[in-house]
C-alpha cells in the first residue's frame, strides 16, 4: 500500500527516455520510484529536446522545451504555474540546457511560483565564468540542492558558497537486485565457464576502454577463459559528430592485440531489465575513465550497488565509493595496473567475494525505493522552508518588461542561394541569380553566420553544408602569390579580378577569425587559422578605415582562443592606433566622425574601437568608440524613436543633409552588433534597447512600416526605398538579417536568465 503524500504534483525537468543519456535514464527511474512509493502523487515530466522534432515520449511527458529557444523556457514556466505543481525536481547537467553554460534554465526557474529542488549531476571544482554564474544562480533560486557525493558537498560549499542547510546528500539510485552468483546467468549469454569483465554506458573516448584492451593480453595469459563485454551504444552527440569512428578504432585495436575472440561489443542502449542480466553475469566491473573530475557515475553506482567487484581509475566518485576495501583503484592510463589488479582478484576468490559483499551492503541504501523517500523528504523541506521565496505569478510581466520574441532562424533562402561553389551574390525576388556569380564578401558573411549558429546549437545539414562551402570559397579566394583575397567569381568559376578590395580582405579576416575563435570543428579551425595568419600582414598597408575595422573585429574573434599570439596583438595595436588617429585628425565638436562622409557599414568603425579599446586596455580607443556610436545612433534615429539608416542614395556628407533612402540591411546589422557590444561592456540597458530598435527595422519598425524580412522564404529584401521595398532577396541583405538575428539570440541567451548584464565590465585605466 503506498504512502499518502502531502505533495500531490511533482514536475521533473530534464532529459527523459527515449533520449539516450544518463540523465534521461535517471529521470525515468526517479519518476517510477516516486510514483511507486507515493501512489497518490502525480509526477509528470518536462524534457529538453536537442534535435528537431524531439522524441517519441511516453504519456507522462506533458510539455517539451526546445534546447536553444529562450522563449520555450518561459512557456514551460507558465505551463508549470498554470498546473498547480507542488514542487519542481530539476535535473541539472552542463550541456543539456541552452545558452552559455546552460543559462537558459535559470530563466525558467526564476519565473516559477513553486519551490525547486535541483539535483546536481555535475559539480565542477574549476568552473569557467559562465559555469560559475549558472551554478550560483541555481544556488540562489533553488529551494534545495541535492548532490550525490561528499566531494560534491565540499565543492558546493567551498566553490559556490551554497549554505550547508540547503544541501542534501542523496546517493545515485540503483535497481534492487539480489546478491547472486554470476555463474547462474552465464549460460543465457553463452559465456558459461568463463570469467566475465564488463564496462557499460554510452561509448565515447573519455571512457578509456582502450586501456582495458591493452590489459587483456596479460590477463588472458593467465586466465585464457576471460571475456570482456563492452555494453552500450555510441554517445548520440559523438555519433552525430564522428559516426562510429571510436568504436571502429577499438575494433582495430582488438585485432592488432589479437584479443578479438575475447571481446564482445553490444552496440545498443539497453533497458533496465536487460541491464540487470548483464550485471548478473559479471565477475569484475571495470571503469577505466580518463578524467579525475567526474563527481558522479551512474554506471559505477549500478554495478557497485548490485554487488560487483570493481576495478576503477580514481575519479572522484570512485575514490569515495570504493574506499575501505569496497573496490580497487588503479592509476589513469595504466593498463599494466588494470591487468595486475584484475588478475589478483581472479586469483583470490575469497577477497573478491568479500569485496562484493561490502559493496552490496552499502548499496542497500542506494536502491531506488529508499532513494525515492529521501527525495520526497527533500521536496517536503523545500515546500516548508522559509528560504522558498515568493515566485512570480503567471502573466505578471507587462509589455515594457517582457522581451519580444525573436523570429525563428530560418535558412531556407540562404540554402537556396548556396551551391557547391559557395553563396551566390544576388537573387531576382527570391530566386537565385546565376548571372551575377559569387563574391568573397558574402561567403565571409556566411561563414561568420554559421559559426554563430554553432554557438547557438543550430547545426543541421544545411548549416554544415553552408559552413563548409563558405570556408572552402574563402580558401579558394585567397591568392598565396600576393596574400590577398580575390572577390568576384563568375558563375563559370573564373575569377573576374586578380585582387579584391581592401574591405573584402578585411571581411574575410573577420570571418576567419570567428571560425578560429568560435567553431568546434577542429579541421575548420585549423584551415581558417592558417589562412588568417597568411592574410594578416597586407592589412598593415591598407588605407580603408572599414578594412581596418573588419580586421580588428576578426582579431578580437581570433583572440577568443589564441589570445597569446604576440604578432597578431601587435597588428591589433597598429590598426587601433591608425583608426583612433584618423578620428582625431578629422573630427570636430559638431562632426565626431572618422571621415568627411558617413557612408556604409558605419557602426563597424565604432564597434572595432569598442572591442580593441576594452580588450586591448586602450581607454582612448574605447572612449572614441563610445562617443562615435552615441553620435551615430542619434543621427540614425527618427523623432518616433525608430531606426533610420543613412541612405545609400547620397550618404551623409559633412555640411550637407543626410540621405534618407535607400536604406540598407547592412546598416541595421552593423548597428545591432555595435550596440550589443556597448551593452556588454557597460551593462546599461539603453544599449540593449538600441540594439532592439535597430533590429526591429528589419521587421517593419521603419520609415515605411514595411518589413524587410520575408518570413515565408527566410530571406531579406535588399533595401528600403522612398516608396517601397526592393523585393530582391540577395545574399548581403539576407545574411545581414540572419547575422543580426543570431547576435540578438546570443544576447538573449546570455542575459535572459539573469537580471545582470552579460559581462560585468572592468573600468579601464585613464590614459
What is the gist of this entry?
The protein is of the alpha/beta class and 767 residues long. It has 27 helices and 25 strands.
Explain what this protein looks like in three dimensions:
By secondary structure, the chain is an alpha/beta fold. It has three domains: 9-173 and 369-384, Glycogen Phosphorylase B (Rossmann fold); 182-366, 3-Layer(aba) Sandwich (Rossmann fold); 412-751, Glycosyltransferase (Alpha/alpha barrel). The strands form eight sheets. Strands 2-1-5-6-7-8 form a six-stranded parallel sheet, with helices on both faces. Strands 11-10-9-12-13-14 form a six-stranded parallel sheet, sandwiched between helices. It has a three-stranded antiparallel sheet with strand order 15-16-19. α7 (209-222) crosses α13. The chain is elongated and about 95 Å long. The termini are far apart.
**Proportion in helices:** 40-55%
Shape: elongated
pLDDT averaged residue by residue: 91
Overall CATH architecture of the largest domain: Alpha/alpha barrel
Contiguous runs where pLDDT drops below 50 for at least 5 residues: 391-396, 753-767
Classify the secondary structure makeup into a structural class: alpha/beta
Quote the beta fraction.
Answer: 5-15%
Radius of gyration: 30 Å
CATH topology of the largest domain: Glycosyltransferase
- How many beta-strand elements? 25
* Largest beta-sheet characterization: 6 strands, parallel
How many distinct helices?
Answer: 27
Q: What's the CATH class label of the largest domain?
A: Mainly Alpha
| Total separate domains | 3
